[in-house]
Amino acid sequence: MKPIHLLGAIPFLGILGGIFIANRVTPYVLGMPFNLFWLVMWVVLISATMAVIYRLDPANREERSS
């Protein structure tokens, strides 16, 4: 398995697997309950992760001639 595929699995594990760890309301972060903050944080991290995957993908390095 390529490292790019493993990098693509991180957001899946963060949102679906981590929600069981972050299942609490009491600490508020940026005015949001921790559970909601966890989900919003992963939405932002998914965008960053997908940008890194795009840059590392060898198929995107080739210049296409029109």
UniProtKB/TrEMBL annotation:
InterPro entries noted in UniProt: DUF3311 (IPR021741)
Residues passing through the membrane, by range: 7-30, 36-56
Pfam families in the record: DUF3311
Key words of the record: Membrane, Transmembrane, Transmembrane helix
UniProt cross-references to PANTHER family, sorted A to Z: BSL5891 PROTEIN
Protein name: DUF3311 domain-containing protein
The organism of origin for this protein: Streptomyces rugosispiralis
Record lineage: Bacteria, Bacillati, Actinomycetota, Actinomycetes, Kitasatosporales
